[in-house]
Specification:
Length: 321
């Protein structure tokens, strides 16, 4: 079944379209990454899918329900984690969840059980009675995910869940989201700027200027845009070209910064190069494909610079219901 479907979706702010005829189909149970640069229309799309913003034209369904005609029912079937924290800093973690439980209309006993389960799932049980202002950014994000899950949503929307987090905290948030996918089977729809986060997805769509420019599995996307770039300097580069061909079956080309080769997994090749090449390796760098590479491939241009500053879900003013 399809968890999210958008057909010819438009959102205008004034006379310019932020979302420009967007089509999307997200299978139930998938973790779906919605990638794009600043100002591409990600937050505006998520705002329409979560019923916070009325589409100017087109239609969208979430959990089988039309977002424009049945918004209240859609809201009961979704959870939202906003880009900016909307937690009450003066309340404890459990109190923040209790407030949400009230909004979801859970009874007292039901709420108690659900709150305990969510704190447990996000490994926050020990911290339930601590005021949120004493939480680190990563703990707050985990609490926000717990809150998004409180009403047992069929679809969880997260707007840039890892933006502003350091790499360790980002990995921890993903560990929880990955577990959620394995254990709960709910549909997770999240926006991001980072192509690296695609590895956590079943499918991804890339949006630019309000339109989906490509969509597929991470493997499909990677295979289209190519592999890691390894740049290597050795004590004798011409001999290294031969050794790379003979011992590794790899074709290296001389470049301004050293020998360049494209491989599917640079990180595993590098240690082998150092030990098996038979030549001293002076320097080596590995660069993975980025969102810029995808853009370049599909649009013929780099991600535009100075994209307009985007607004976030929590502060959309104009056009909001
Ligand atoms: N309330 C608003 N009023 C006017 N223009 C807006 C409003 N919200 C967004 N926009 C514009 O619509 C376009 C799409 O913005 P949106 O926030 O959806 O992009 P985004 O992909 O989420 O960006 P980011 O990754 O920076 O959050 C941008 O040009 C933005 O400046």
């Amino acid at each position: 079944m399809t968890a999210i479907r958008a057909e010819g979706l438009y959102a205008y702010y004034g006379t310019s379209p932020a979302v420009n005829g967007l089509n999307l189909e997200v299978p139930e149970g998938a973790t779906f990454g919605f990638l794009g640069p600043n100002g591409a229309g990600k937050t505006t799309t998520i705002s329409m899918l979560t019923t916070l913003l009325k589409p100017t034209a087109g239609r969208a369904e979430v959990a089988g329900l039309d977002v424009a005609t049945r918004p209240a029912e859609v809201r009961r079937r979704i959870g939202i984690v906003f880009q900016e924290s909307t937690l009450d800093m003066d309340l404890t973690a459990a109190e923040n969840l209790r407030f949400q439980a009230d909004l979801c209309g859970l009874g007292r006993r039901e709420a108690r059980t659900a709150i305990a389960a969510m704190l447990d799932m996000m490994e926050l049980s020990e911290r339930g009675d601590i005021p949120v202002q004493r939480f680190s950014t990563g703990l707050r994000r985990r609490l926000e995910i717990a809150r998004g899950l409180l009403g047992s949503p069929r679809v969880l929307f997260l707007d840039e869940p890892t933006t502003g987090l350091d790499s360790q905290t980002r990995a921890a948030v993903w560990e929880h989201l990955d577990r959620l996918r394995r254990e709960q089977g709910i549909t997770v729809f999240f926006t991001t700027h980072q192509l690296e986060e695609a590895e956590h997805c079943d499918r991804i769509a890339i949006i630019d200027r309000g339109k989906v420019i490509t969509e597929g599995t991470p493997a499909q996307l990677k295979s289209i845009i190519g592999a890691d770039l390894v740049v290597l300097r050795t004590e004798d580069d011409p001999s290294a070209v031969e050794a790379l061909s003979d011992r590794f079956g790899l074709a290296a080309e001389p470049g301004p910064d050293g020998l360049r080769l494209r491989v599917s997994n640079g990180a595993t090749l590098v240690p082998r190069l150092c030990t098996e090449l038979g030549l001293t390796v002076r320097s080596v760098t590995v660069t993975s494909p980025t969102l810029d590479d995808v853009f370049l491939h599909h649009t013929g241009s780099a991600i535009r610079e100075n994209a307009p500053n985007a607004r976030t879900l929590s502060n959309i003013g104009e056009g909001r219901r």
